């Protein structure tokens, strides 16, 4: 995870794990907005400065708590840097680069399966969307970024479920190029097209 | 469920329930194609004719095993009857008519949550798609109906998850008209537009 410092003192791994466990519980029970670094530190019996030391910002702590094999913010950053024109196609190429990686895919599929778990689903709706997706919409300068990014999410999550979790054919066998050509017009319209 | 006859003899409800339990197990373990009425009857210790008597065809038995509060084939039939032009908009209106019904929604949401369960997900990918969705693509006379209908499913399932299961805002608060205007162009392109 970016922004994550590794502890070097004896016993540090336990402290890191305790902070991470507290963070997961807090984020799940209170959502992203309702969780503070101070509260997580209190639950773990450590000082807030130590949480910052190990995990960086609250956004970074949240991403660590999600336990994803890649930080989606790092995947999306170069997509956003080039502006809204063609962003959907660039996003799909970057997205497939991660999801089609045989080393990453099993962990990502397990994560997607967990979306239906009540705890994890709150992490998604109250954390992942505001921390990862909404900043993308803002950085791209989109009009009504929340609406547009949730529309993007509604298509991408369905693709993940059918192709990677349920492996529904023929979707599971489409090539990367076919997927990009199929879904880029949908996502680009959600990003920048006319909407009600 | 359409095509379902109710038993009238004493003890019939137990027989119906036993057949349904056998059907659910078979469909989950063997998929739709790998399940026969004869095998379900054998598991339940009854004659195949009795399965037909209670549940009709194998498609009907499958829909009964899904335990949905409405038969999606009945919802989709009038959409299909008017042909492919405008089918996406008509589908969305019919779909929202069911999902926005406060009496039906809790059961539908529970069903959607169950999609991630390994048993139920096989029912979806190996049953729901071939029994409900593929016939729609064929009836509409679509070119490559399997591909097009799985694309439709990939958007509709994502919409269901974000709006009804996770209740992500602002998607959860969009009006029916906004949803139709937002998603109809996507679904119509998947049905009849140019695709790779």
From TrEMBL, chains A, B:
Q: What positions does the domain HTH tetR-type occupy? A: 13-73
GO MF term set: DNA-binding transcription factor activity; transcription cis-regulatory region binding
Q: Does the keyword Ligase apply?
A: no
Q: Which residues bind DNA?
A: 36-55
Q: Which PROSITE patterns match?
A: HTH_TETR_2
Q: What is the lineage of its organism?
A: Bacteria, Bacillati, Actinomycetota, Actinomycetes, Propionibacteriales
Q: What is this protein called?
A: TetR/AcrR family transcriptional regulator
Q: Keywords on this record?
A: DNA-binding
Q: Which InterPro entries match?
A: Homeodomain-like_sf, HTH-type_TetR-like_transc_reg, HTH_TetR, Tet_transcr_reg_TetR-rel_C_sf, TetR_C_16
